[in-house]
Amino acid sequence: DKDTSGLLVVAKDDATHIGLSQQMAVHSVERAYNTIVYGGFAQDEGFVETNLGRSKTDRKKMAVYPASEPHTKYAYTGYRVLERFGYTTLVECVLETGRTHQIRAHMKHIGHPLFMDETYGGAEILRGQRSSSYKAFIQNCFKLCPRQALHAKTLGFVHPTTQQQMDFDSEWPDDFRKLIEKWRGFIAGTTQDTFQTK
Fold first, then answer.
1. Which residues, listed in sequence order, are joined to residue 49 by a DSSP beta bridge?
2. CA–CA distance, 65 with 148 (Å, rounded to integer)
3. Within 13 Å and on the Cβ side, how many CA atoms surround 83?
4. Active site includes 1?
5. In angstroms, how far is CA 53 from the centroid of its own chain?
6. Residues 12-71: tens digit of each pLDDT
């Protein structure tokens, strides 16, 4: 995804590409993302397990389908709550598979679109108050991070040539970090009984 920040692995030759592809096929590549999504979670961790395929109504999007649906692929996303902001949540998503828009489609499917994800409905106020001050706060958040709030945090794989384990970690970029700080400031000034799970 062009608007996702963080780590990316690129093969510089065919042999490396084949080696990485084989690891992808057996789900041995370790990938964890941080994302801010709308809504609160009743549980601290869970998973989404579905088939994903190109949406029949919007070719720019992926959608969830039954396993019997042709031209779809199995997808598994594990998630863990890192921090709660009342109307939004900072979540770690760990991918077992690597489908197009997997995290974005899966979070949308369970009712938690990514914050500022225009394609999957997250670029509007989905949770929160009706007050003009809250609306202004959200608009300021959108300006602060004008993309889906998704960051590829960690990446691990076996080097196809040396066979050494390679592990990488990426710090949050400024827009993502400032967005989290803004939500922390918001939640610090709000009473907890204001919020409801989901």
1. 76
2. 23
3. 13
4. yes
5. 18
6. 999 888 998 888 878 788 999 999 999 999 999 999 999 999 999 999 999 999 999 999
Determine the distance from the C-alpha atom of residue 184 to the mean position of all C-alpha atoms in its chain, rounded to a whole number.
Answer: 19
pTM: 0.90
Q: Which amino acid is at 113?
A: P
Query: Using alpha carbons only, what angle is made at residue 92 by residues 101 and 108, rounded to the nearest 5 degrees?
Result: 40
Q: Quote the CA–CA distance of 190 and 193 in Å, as a whole number.
A: 9
Residue whose structure tokens are 């706060």 = 137
Per the listing, tokens 């202004």 go with 136
Q: Which residue has the tokens 């959200």?
A: 138
Quote the DSSP letter at residue 121. Answer: T
Largest CA distance in the chain: 58
CA distances from 99 to 77, 167, 192 (A): 10, 21, 36
Output the six-digit token pair for 149.
Answer: 């709030």
Which of 1, 3, 167, 193 is labelled catalytic? 1
Tell me the one-letter amino acid at 136: A
CB 90 within 8 A of CB 107: no
**What does residue 105 show for φ and ψ, rounded to 5 degrees?**
-70, -40
The pair of three-digit structure tokens given for residue 193, joined into one six-digit string: 């009984």
Cα–Cα distance for residue pair 91/111, rounded to 1 Å: 14
Half-sphere exposure of 162 (CA within 13 A, CB side): 5
